[in-house]
Amino acid sequence: MSGDGKRIVLSFDDGPGPVSALESILGTLRENDIKAEFYVLGDEVRQFPEAARMIVDQGHDIQNHSWSHPDLAQETEEVRRELERTQDIIEEVSGLRPTKIRPPYGAGGFRGHLDPELVRVAGELSLTIVTWDIDTEDWKAPQGLGQEKIAYIEEQFTQMPRKVSFNVLMHILAGTARDLPSFISQLWEWGFTIAEP
């Protein structure tokens, strides 16, 4: 596979806990001089404010992934509350107000399947709805970015031969933290450039 001339943005959902996994991920990113984006949950930011600040202090983007990880496409009343509370707590803790929302499960966020309520609320809060191009499925057993996931990830890239820019989805998990150094090496080996969000 050739990633020559193609760019990747690394993104991480959920969290900012578990804090040990986050610290390991941040360390790997720092060692490789990579900036990533983190889509965090408001309720976890409330529990781990220091972890949220760590993301920002190290120069990464911190973005909105809802308060409690519901399927926003199934919600009506709750959408505003889920997004607005998360905006507020992230700003309160980190000093930054998110500019993007990645809906949990991607629900209501993919082109052709946009949820009208999500679109309306995101617009009112000046949030761009974003999803991803490559799903690592790092949360599925065996957790992480091991060999069985690499083949699956490579297959996704090859299905989009004309695309030049990819957002790669991962999660703040111990297995992902463990495998991230070798995964980054693999992306470089394929010829990709890892870009800033």
Notes on the protein architecture:
The chain has one domain: Alpha-Beta Barrel (TIM Barrel), CATH 3.20.20. The protein is 42% helix and 15% strand. With 197 residues, the chain is an alpha/beta fold. α5 links the parallel β4 and β5. Strands 1, 2, 3, 6, 7 and 8 form a six-stranded parallel β-sheet that branches. A two-stranded parallel ribbon has the order 4-5.
Brief description of this entry?
With 197 residues, the protein is α/β, with parallel strands linked by helices. It has seven helices and eight strands. The chain has a single domain (7-194), classed as Glycoside hydrolase/deacetylase (TIM Barrel), CATH 3.20.20.370.
Structural class: alpha/beta
Oligomer: single chain
CATH class: Alpha Beta
CATH architecture assignment name = Alpha-Beta Barrel
- Average residue-wise pLDDT: 96
- CATH fold field value: TIM Barrel
Gyration radius, rounded = 16 Å
String of helices and strands? EHEHHEHEHEEHEHE
Count of folded domains: 1
Beta-sheet strand percentage?
Answer: 15-25%
In the CATH hierarchy, what is the superfamily?
A: Glycoside hydrolase/deacetylase
Helix content: 40-55%
User: What is the number of helical segments per DSSP (H or I, 4+ residues)?
Assistant: 7
Give the tags.
single chain; 197 residues; alpha/beta; 6-stranded parallel β-sheet; two-stranded parallel ribbon; 8 strands; hydrolase activity, acting on carbon-nitrogen (but not peptide) bonds
Topology (elements, then pairings):
Elements: E1 7-13, H1 19-31, E2 37-40, H2 42-47, H3 49-57, E3 61-64, H4 78-94, E4 100-101, H5 116-124, E5 128-129, E6 134-135, H6 147-158, E7 165-171, H7 174-189, E8 193-194
Parallel strand pairs: 1-2, 1-7, 1-8, 2-3, 4-5, 6-7
Helix pairs in contact: 1-7
